[in-house]
């Protein structure tokens, strides 16, 4: 059964239609890459899926909950990590885990167990009482991912999780994604690194508010007769992207 | 004469050694890239070169002028586009461009030929507040503003970070045209694939330069056997390759996995057989040539090992 079901989902900001009748589904346990140029409508779409923004029309269910009537249940049953914000920089590693454990409603005992487990797995035991701001970006991002799935959600949304990190950390981060996926967590991820698009089971590419292509990377490459996802992306997104981005900025969406 | 000459320059912030004794030079008219992740020291290095930050040690010359002693004379000769949005968001597109021209005592008209190709797509939006532009357009405006006083050396700090693949490609096409007009360009990026678009690159990590050369020559320094492996269950394949006794490094790479052998020579057949024996019937293994990213990761790994050795 699909964990995300989206049918003709639409969102307008005034006259500007940021997301236009988008239809797709994501299967349980899948690593799904959600690609698109800046301003293509990705962020608007994600905000609707995680219960932060009401759609203008269309339908969407995430983890079995309706985005119109059950946004709070959605928020409790998903994990979310964005590049811009994820951890509290002035809190220590341990305090962050404890804080998020509390938010997700875990018991004190569960938080304690999870903390020990997580510190061990990520090799952060030695820095557990260090403030987040003093840690390298790569460590922070790995910790942010683990914290995002602390409450064992069925699905986790990752918004550009690997921006700016070094090539080794980027791959270690994908090991965490594979590991989570192997344990049954569905992963919904956006990225500007096209080599990472190849790591996904399926990807969709958004252009001007619509999904222009969807499928496994190998299938899309065959369809367009090219060797890399970068070429697929450029074929689809070039041209429309610029004007779309301009209108998006004008409409206040994105 | 070299456009940029840097000798043993260093900068620390408290206990953090952001740049640790870096030396290099950039030739006139060159498109020179600094490739490295966040925290490598690229921004600190750039700020010292554009006279905004004093070095703790060492010296640097840009266009023949000392970055500390001659900073006043140097400033009009250099253009700088910082990584973060550098425009006045409340001023219009056109006002921003005029402002930057007048600060340097020139006019938009005088140098319009230089920025025309970059600024033209912005003309229809010239009355819009700069803060309301999309990422790609902001980037074009910031580049126009950094160029409008016709600098001799242009410093671009991570102009393509967070920018989608289409805008990235367009940006590099613009840089190619600028280079053709004779301007020396020093650019930094966390994207390894952009190294190929530079005349020469410096790989930077932990405040140090790991290597400085042409992309071709850097790639040729990779001295271990490198294979690309493909198979249906990628994560299992990755783990199986890591468990191979001769594995030096194993990294996912687009639609394949790059496997480096620890020995001086290695036979792809042997690895194929190992994978078959582990149930990967369809696994393919082929020798490949290393790219910049392979070299970068190998140098990082070597640096970390050397570091651990000191402890």
How would you sum up this structure, described in words?
The complex is a heterodimer of chains A (254) and B (311). Chain A has helices at residues 42-49, 71-77, 93-103, 108-122, 137-148, 167-182, 194-197, 217-224, 229-237, 240-251; strands spanning 2-13, 16-27, 31-36, 57-62, 65-66, 78-82, 155-159, 186-190, 202-207, 210-215. With 254 residues, chain A is of the alpha/beta class. The longest helix of chain A has 16 residues, at 167-182. Chain A is globular, with a radius of gyration of 18 Å. The model of chain A is unreliable at 241-245 and 250-254 (pLDDT under 50). Chain B is built from 10 helices and 14 strands. In chain B, strands 6-7-8-3-9-10 form a 6-stranded mixed β-sheet, with helices on both faces. Chain B has a 4-stranded antiparallel β-sheet with strand order 2-1-4-5. The two termini of chain B are 42 Å apart. The mean pLDDT of chain B is 93. Chains A and B meet through helix 6, helix 8, helix 9 and helix 10 of A and helix 5, helix 6, helix 8, strand 12 and helix 10 of B.
Number-wise, the strands of chain B total 14
Average of the residue pLDDT scores of chain A: 90
- Backbone CA Rg of chain A: 18 Å
Strand coverage percent of chain A = 25-35%
Determine the N-to-C terminus distance of chain B.
42 Å
Could you estimate the helical fraction of the residues of chain B in percent? 25-40%
C-alpha end-to-end distance of chain A: 30 Å
> Sheet with the most strands of chain A?
6 strands, mixed
Determine the fraction of residues in helical runs of chain A and give it as a percent range. 40-55%
Greatest chain-chain contact: A-B, 45 and 40 residues
Strand sequence of the main sheet of chain B, in spatial order?
Answer: 6-7-8-3-9-10
Gross geometry of chain A = globular
CATH class of the largest domain in chain B: Alpha Beta
Amount of beta strand of chain B: 25-35%
**CATH superfamily placement of the largest domain in chain B:** P-loop containing nucleotide triphosphate hydrolases
User: What's the mean pLDDT score of chain B?
Assistant: 93
Q: Point out poorly predicted stretches of chain B.
A: none
């Amino acid at each position: 059964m699909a964990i995300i079901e989206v049918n003709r989902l639409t969102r307008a900001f005034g006259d500007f239609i940021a997301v236009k009748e988008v239809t797709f589904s994501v299967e349980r346990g899948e690593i799904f890459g959600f690609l698109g140029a800046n301003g293509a409508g990705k962020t608007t779409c994600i905000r609707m899926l995680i219960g932060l923004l009401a759609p203008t029309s269309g339908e969407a269910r995430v983890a079995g909950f309706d985005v119109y009537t059950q946004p709070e249940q959605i928020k409790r049953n998903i994990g979310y990590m964005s590049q811009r914000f994820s951890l509290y920089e002035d809190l220590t590693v341990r305090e962050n885990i404890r804080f998020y454990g509390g938010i997700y409603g875990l018991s004190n005992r569960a938080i304690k167990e999870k903390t020990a487990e997580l510190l061990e797995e990520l090799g952060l035991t030695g820095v557990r009482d260090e403030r987040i701001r003093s840690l390298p970006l790569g460590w922070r991002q790995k910790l942010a991912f683990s914290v995002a799935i602390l409450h064992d959600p069925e699905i986790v949304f990752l918004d550009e999780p690997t921006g700016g990190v070094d090539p080794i950390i980027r791959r270690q981060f994908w090991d965490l994604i594979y590991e989570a996926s192997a344990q049954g967590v569905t992963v919904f991820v956006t990225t500007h690194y096209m080599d990472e698009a190849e790591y996904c089971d399926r990807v969709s590419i958004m252009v001007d508010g619509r999904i222009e292509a969807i499928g496994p990377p190998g299938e899309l490459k065959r369809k367009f007769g090219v060797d890399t996802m970068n070429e697929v992306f450029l074929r689809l997104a070039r041209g429309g992207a610029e004007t779309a981005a301009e209108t998006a900025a004008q409409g206040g969406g994105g | 004469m070299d456009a940029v000459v840097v000798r043993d320059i260093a900068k620390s912030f408290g206990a953090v050694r952001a740049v640790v004794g870096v030396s290099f030079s950039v030739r006139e008219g060159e498109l020179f890239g600094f490739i490295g992740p966040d925290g490598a020291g690229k921004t600190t290095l750039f700020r010292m070169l554009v006279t905004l930050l004093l070095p703790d040690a060492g010296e640097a010359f840009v266009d023949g002028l000392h970055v500390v002693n001659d900073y006043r004379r140097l400033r009009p000769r250099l253009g700088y586009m910082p990584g973060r949005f550098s425009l006045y968001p409340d001023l219009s597109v056109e006002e921003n461009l005029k402002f930057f021209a007048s600060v340097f005592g020139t006019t938009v008209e005088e140098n319009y030929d230089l920025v025309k190709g970059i600024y033209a797509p912005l003309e229809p939006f010239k009355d819009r507040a700069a803060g309301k532009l999309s990422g790609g357009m902001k980037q074009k405006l910031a580049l126009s503003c950094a160029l409008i006083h016709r600098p001799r050396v242009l410093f671009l700090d991570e102009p393509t970070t967070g920018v989608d693949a289409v805008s990235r490609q367009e940006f590099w096409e613009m840089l190619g045209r600028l280079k053709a007009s004779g301007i020396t360009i020093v650019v930094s990026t966390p994207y390894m694939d952009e190294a190929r678009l530079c005349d020469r690159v410096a790989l930077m990590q932990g405040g140090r330069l790991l290597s400085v050369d042409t992309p071709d020559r850097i790639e040729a320094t990779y001295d271990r056997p490198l294979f690309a492996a493909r198979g249906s269950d990628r994560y299992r394949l990755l783990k199986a390759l890591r468990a191979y006794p001769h594995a030096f490094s194993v990294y996912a790479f687009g639609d394949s996995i790059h496997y480096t052998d620890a020995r001086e020579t290695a036979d792809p057949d042997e690895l194929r057989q190992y994978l078959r024996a582990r149930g990967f019937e369809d696994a393919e293994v082929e020798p490949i040539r290393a790219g910049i990213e392979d070299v970068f990761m190998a140098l990082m790994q070597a640096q970390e090992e050397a570091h651990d050795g000191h402890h």
